[in-house]
Structures are given as structure tokens and as C-alpha cells.
Design a protein that fits this description.
Blueprint lengths: L9 H9 L4 H14 L21 E7 L5 E7 L2 H14 L4 H6 L2 H7 L8 H22 L2
Antiparallel strand pairs: 1-2
């Protein structure tokens, strides 16, 4: 198993974004966050792990631990998108299926004003990735 990205709470992420004065600094933070994420092994960069609905290539791998919590690993061929993937992974990792379904990530994105500053296609891709995470959590609850 490869190195995992540290999880972060919604409040911690919001506080992190409040440290920046403008969106240029926030974009830099998003890209640097993505660059800190370990690259996804090439065998996982396949259609099976590709998130549909993203213009950039995005791959997402889900792992369940013995205690039932989930960890995510991902990657993208776009620096900014890789940063967005990393932020989503940080917010959803080390949580149970119930916690994943309860997290109001749109509230978090509103609090940091994210959707106003990314393109519609990136926002749609983000929705696709979040939808995949939530549907897998829902499947687990019903299995």
C-alpha cells in the first residue's frame, strides 16, 4: 500500500483558505497541495479507476481499512485538478460510509468560494468525483 494523504476536517480546510488574501495565492495552494500527493501507481491509471465526467484524466482508488473507514488515492494529468482531487481526498479520507454521506462538501466549497473560481467543466468533474465517492459509500451501507 502506498503513502496516504493526511485527512483534514472541513473547518481546517476553511481556515487554511482564510490565510490567503487572493485567489492567485489560493490557486498556488491548491497546486502545491496536489504536488504533495504521492503519484498514483501506473497500474491504477486505467479506465477501471477513471472518474467519468472529468475533462482532465482523473483516477480514484478506494481502500477500506479493518476498522471500516475509507482512504482514497488519486491522480490527474492536470496540476490544478490534481490539487482539487487531493483536497477532496483529504476531506473524505479516514471516514466511515456514514460520515462520507453526511459531509456537506458543497457547504465547504461555498465557504471557500471555490466554485466561483473554477471553470464549469472542473466543477462538473468535481461533482463526478464526489458522486463516485458517495455512491461507493452508499453501496457499502446497503451490502
Amino acid at each position: 500500500m502506498s503513502k496516504r494523504v493526511e485527512s483534514i476536517t472541513a473547518d481546517e480546510l476553511i481556515e487554511e483558505f482564510e490565510l490567503f488574501d487572493d485567489w492567485e495565492e489560493r490557486y498556488r495552494y491548491i497546486i502545491e497541495t496536489g504536488n504533495s500527493m504521492p503519484p498514483l501507481e501506473i497500474e491504477y491509471q486505467s479506465e477501471q479507476h477513471r472518474v467519468q465526467g472529468c475533462l482532465s484524466s482523473v483516477w480514484l482508488v478506494i481502500e477500506q481499512t479493518a476498522n471500516g473507514n475509507y482512504y482514497y488515492r488519486g491522480d490527474s494529468d492536470s496540476q490544478l485538478v490534481k490539487g482539487l482531487v487531493c483536497i477532496v481526498i483529504m476531506l473524505y479520507s479516514d471516514k466511515s460510509a456514514e460520515e462520507i454521506l453526511q459531509l456537506d462538501i458543497n457547504h465547504v466549497f461555498e465557504a471557500i468560494d471555490l466554485r466561483q473560481h473554477i471553470s464549469r467543466s472542473r466543477s462538473n468533474g468535481l461533482n463526478s468525483m464526489i458522486g463516485r465517492i458517495k455512491s461507493l459509500a452508499l453501496e457499502t451501507l446497503h451490502s
